[in-house]
Amino acid sequence: MPDDFVADPDGVPAEGQLSPSEGQLSDEDGLSEEEREERARGLPPLREVAEIRKPSTLGGVIYLCVLAGAMAGVGIAATGAWRTGVSWLAAALIGAAVARVILPDDNAGMLRVRRKALDAAILTGAGVALLILAASIPNQPG
User: Fold this and answer.
1) Total domain count for the chain?
2) Is residue 31 part of a domain?
3) pTM above the 0.85 mark?
4) Could you read off the pLDDT tens digit of each residue along the chain, which spans 142 residues?
5) Is residue 30 one of the residues assigned to a domain?
6) Domain span at residue 86?
7) Fewer Cβ close by (within 10 Å): the C or N end of the chain?
């Protein structure tokens, strides 16, 4: 140990003082030269990049179609034809409900959140509510 190293009886360095091995990396740490240099400069280690995967179930594909329909509906509604856009959104939700009822649980993918009956009821209720609202709100003068 260096002469200027001060530790308590348990061998813990005094406050504000580095232990002799702290900040030093050995060749036995399993890091590449580049990783050692990054760690010495104080940079965090690089993370693995997640690969983009295709849906593994039919429900995953249907979920992406529902998402595309819902986004189209929001886009249509945002550009001015709000009744048409809300109807597209409602149709996407009702389509998701139908798919959730038809598909078995193992193949439902991201459509499966809760029990089948509850998923279908929530999706159907939201879709029907949007259709009723789009049909019942009167046109505004102007």
Assistant:
1) 1
2) no
3) no
4) 555 555 556 655 555 555 555 555 455 567 777 777 777 777 676 677 777 777 778 888 899 999 999 999 999 999 988 999 999 999 999 999 999 999 998 888 888 889 999 999 999 999 999 999 999 988 876 5
5) no
6) 58-136
7) C
